[in-house]
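name: query_chain
kind: protein
chains: 1
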Amino acid sequence: MIIGQFTKLMVFQTIDDEDLVARGEDKYSVSAINEPERGDIVDRAGNVLASDMEAYRIAIITDENYPNHVSNPEETASLLAEVIDMSKEDIQTEIEENIEKGQFQMELGQAGRNISYNDKKFLEESEATGIVFEPETRRFYPNGQFASHLIGYAEMNNESNELDGQLGFERIYNDLLKGEPGSIDYDQDVWGYIVPNSDNVKPPVNGHDVKLTIDSNIQLYLEETLNDMDEHFKPEELIAVVADADTGEILASGQRPSFNPETREGFGESWLNMLYEYSFEPGSTFKVFGLAAAIEEGVYDPDTVYTSGSMDVMDTTIYDWETEGWGYITYNEGMQYSSNVLMMILQDKVGADKMLDYYQKFGFGQTTGSEFPTESAGQIAWDNELQQKTTSFGQTSTVTPIQLIQGMTALLNEGEMKKPYVVDEITDDAGDVVYDGKEETVSQVISPEAAEKTVSEMNTLIGGSLDHNPQYKSDEYEVTGKSGTAQIYDPENGGYMDGDYQFFTSFLGYAPKDDPEVIVYYGIKLASENKSETWDNGVARGFNPLMERTLKYLEVSEADVSKENSVVEIGDYTGKEIDALTDELNDTIDVKVVGNGNEIVEHYPKDDRLLPYDSLFVKTEGDLTLPDFTGLSKREALTLGDFMGIEVTVEGEGYVKSQSQNSGTAVTEDTAVEVTLSSNDPND
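structure:
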């Protein structure tokens, strides 16, 4: 019987239909997954916009038989309420209910997740018992509500236990950002030891990094103006975009409603990325493209006179916004007044078929081929004469903000239309560039001569002979562009809304007008407060500070870098006295000293060059002390933390304005500093 049973076991390798080989492999073979790091999303200067960050999840032990359990629910609830978004009373109630049920432990849902290192340290150093921490990875968005619909957000997928992109570039480039997981397989013996030569390790491949053309400082200015406009007007929608006039690079873009990807505040109010997915009737900003077509066709003479006021089209009378008109005026005066009748006359002179062709050449009615696969193409309404005529002054047909930016680049670049783009480059885990965003000419839309004449006419639209739209004038720069006030389609009743100030108001501008550096598009829809201002002053409240601060920032940046004689050579000062640096450096270098001695033991950088107002980090002998972080950029603050061997976390964008621990504080191995950044506005 024994021989028979043994033979059966050897042949079939089963007992009671259980596969013994598989059971042995399950028992002695071990497999584990090595998770990759998700790639960063950064701005044009390398400042982090989205990154992985270690966080913690709170669990509370409520079983009194376990040594580390909650001994004082009220005290524990009071401490937890200081670091999570729950009231002391609610936390205490949940703890006491779990104790009564005899549960071993409990969690606090979403409120108890994403706990920072500093909050974890605070709770660990308290006298509260029963609090334990589970490490987890979360996506960190240091700037909060900041180009949110472009960057998007990623969150943990509970099924795959991976971060998955849900919106924006986090979703578009999810496969590249998330990387490829690795694995480790090995055999163990009956005592749990690894069997020699049985291990097989496949390292993970970390995700790609995505670098955007966004400039964080300009984006910060844009967000601040949107906040002000949103608070002042309480509109249904706001949109603002800043682009490089020469290359088409998107330097900043934002909208309201928006959301904070870090806290999810405002999440769900608007899924639409207005820069690419929002198609609307633009109003009079569209007129500059009909003007360019008329100039190219040789039918626009600024001194030609026409009768303003109204024109009959089919069975409809179409009026200028001043229904009585301005009498007999020149074409140039008609452009300054933003006359609808003038645009219909010009379209008749060009011809409907040719005008449609020009609109299509400017990119309307088709996508720009952007990085967003859901980009809207808009629609050129051209079925009958009435649609054709109303399209000439920006009604009936629809466009997107990115199309307006693209079309404007053609006028400002001698007729060459530039493709707007917002991804600068994508690099893999090895640092190799796998995608390189570059300036790209879409086509030669009009001749250089026609573009020059069009710009000359546009330059009269602000501060021209009629001094129309003076609210967009700047004391420091020559700003020009085209305003727009479009009627809004009424989805409930059909036709257009006819209430007071129920418009979409916008401005498509550029500056300086003689050598444009940036294009700014700003729009507001259906203000609910201070409505009349949107008619009297348009979007000047938001457009003007955004344009001026952007130009000042760009000019200051370029001026500093271009001064070759201002570069400071940095040598090796190791072993020298700290006072000797006064003789070695000029007073534009900000020296940050860590240590309470006089002799320099280390510094960064070394044998290098610095620009004026850059920082030199110096370590002296003796105990380390915290320096003053004020004035450092985000990158400098993080570099200084690495130099000192301490953890530095940042909040905000721009330059350091405050720090969580005072300068001069002794540094220990547990020291952690949080610094708060804000705008480096040249006016500050």
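note: Residues 630 and 657 are 5 Å apart (CA to CA).
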